[in-house]
Amino acid sequence: MRRTLLKALCVIALLGGSTAHAAEPYVLKFATLAPAGSTWMKAFDAWAKELTAKSQGRLTVKFYPGGIAGDEPDMLKKIRFGQLQGAALSGHGIGEIFSPARILETPFLFRDHAEIDAVRAEILPALDAGFRKNHYELVSWMEVGSIHFFSAKPLANLDEFARRRIWQWQGDRFIDAFFNANGWSPISLPITEVYTGLSTGLVDTVVSTPLASIAMQWAGKTPYMSSQPMATGIGAVVVSSKFYAGLPADLQTLLKSTGVPLSQKLIADTRRDDLKSLAVLAKSTQPMAGLQKINLAEQATLTRKAVSALEAQGYLSAELNRQVDAALAGYRSGKQ
Question: What is the pTM of this model?
Answer without folding.
Answer: 0.87
